[in-house]
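U., I forgot to send this yesterday:
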Amino acid sequence: MKTQMGLWIDHRKALIVTISGDETTFLEIPSEVEKQRRRTGDSPLKGSYEAQQVPADDSSQRAYTAELDKYYAEVISHLSKANAIFIMGPGIAKTELKSCLEKNRLGERILAIETADKMTDTEIMTKVRQKFA
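Result:
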């Protein structure tokens, strides 16, 4: 039996619709990615301020990238069962996910990628069903 999956994704959540035969399921995967992380440590206003207490400039970017990689790995773990994948979303998350799928040798399963603004769960299901009809 052929398994087809469509998803709407951004950096906050992924909504996956799975069509397998006559059965359709819906799964939401929330992201724990924080774009603007809080600074930790001492404040220069509270006392001593040494260069060693200041985090590296790219440490927050590295932490953000690591969180995104973890999020995409979770999404890919659900998509690995699909024979065909349809990806949509408003920002760059869809192209980042495409790159991750290609690294995991699932790139040939991607049917299409479309830009789609915010959508309700029903609109996402309808769009996925139309794409695979």
